[in-house]
């Protein structure tokens, strides 16, 4: 199999870190991004290199479209320098933060922040990176179970994820000419730092999720990292334009 390179946004912690490690374990080289956790990102690079593949960490705020041109130039420069290539194979749009605010109390500033990070950012980042994605490559976006079921306090966040689900189908349609697939994974509630670590650290929330999940527990980062590595495998190259929920059967 020829060399594969994945660009993983938000690879310094949580699901992005886990996915990067799982992809690396299958021989995929990694470009990961961090927003503020430079030290953690460098540690992930070290862990990936121990698996025998190459990795670099680049700073990126996905909520700031004005930085995307510089970022794309840096990605190209790293591709040339580290891999002697000018394209990568897989784009995982994973970076993001939580927002919990009742619909009636959500401010315009909160809405704009969520939109910038969870919709506008991935939209224009992917557009900007298109020339660097190899023909036949893959885009995997990240949604949430919350785009299917409704939990109070997540209207803005979930609506942005819903927008990403629609965008994914359009990306699949329009990028098919280049044999690039676009799919979107929707994790259920997973124990990470997300939302201040509430699913992991708040026993009441943890129990509520577990008791509403068919498999009887909260999701773990490994559940999603493994799924992402599987979704980006050669065996699933014919899957296109799909939303795949990976939640252990939450709120069925
Ligand atoms: N955990 C869950 O229950 C769950 C469920 C469904 C969907 N998701 C989705 O899964 C994705 C990852 O979540 P997670 O649980 O791994 O969260 P996490 O543990 O809080 O990690 C978030 C990651 O995203 C990066 N990030 C945050 N804001 C950013 C920004 N403005 N620009 C660039 N990078 C940014 C962080 O970088 P720094 O460390 O450098 O700040 C970090 O690497 C998100 O899209 C989230 O919506 C999570």
From TrEMBL:
It comes from Lelliottia wanjuensis. This is SDR family oxidoreductase. Keywords: NADP, Oxidoreductase. The keyword Transferase does not apply. GO terms for molecular function: oxidoreductase activity. Residues 4-193 form the Ketoreductase domain. Belongs to the short-chain dehydrogenases/reductases (SDR) family.
């Amino acid at each position: 199999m020829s060399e594969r390179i994945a660009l993983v946004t938000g690879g310094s912690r949580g699901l992005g870190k886990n996915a990067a490690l799982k992809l690396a374990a299958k021989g995929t080289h990694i470009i990961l991004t961090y927003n503020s956790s430079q030290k953690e990102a460098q540690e992930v690079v070290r862990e990936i290199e121990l698996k025998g593949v190459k990795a670099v960490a680049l700073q990126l705020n996905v909520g700031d479209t004005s930085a995307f041109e510089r970022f794309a130039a840096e990605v190209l420069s790293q591709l040339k320098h580290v891999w002697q290539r000018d394209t990568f194979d897989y784009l995982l749009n994973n970076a993001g933060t939580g927002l919990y605010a009742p619909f009636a109390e959500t401010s315009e500033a909160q809405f704009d922040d969520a939109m910038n990070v969870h919709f506008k950012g991935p939209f224009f980042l992917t557009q900007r990176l298109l020339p660097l994605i190899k023909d036949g490559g893959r885009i995997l976006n990240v949604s949430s179970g919350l785009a299917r079921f409704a939990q109070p306090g997540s209207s803005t966040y979930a609506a942005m994820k819903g927008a990403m689900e629609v965008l994914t189908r359009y990306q699949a349609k329009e990028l098919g000419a280049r044999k690039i697939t676009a799919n979107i994974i929707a994790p259920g509630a997973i124990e990470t730092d997300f939302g201040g670590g509430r699913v992991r650290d708040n026993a009441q929330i943890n129990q509520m999720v577990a008791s509403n999940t068919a498999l009887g527990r909260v999701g773990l980062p490994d559940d999603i990292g493994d799924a992402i590595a599987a979704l980006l495998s050669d065996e699933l190259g014919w899957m296109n334009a799909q939303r795949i929920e990976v939640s252990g059967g939450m709120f069925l």
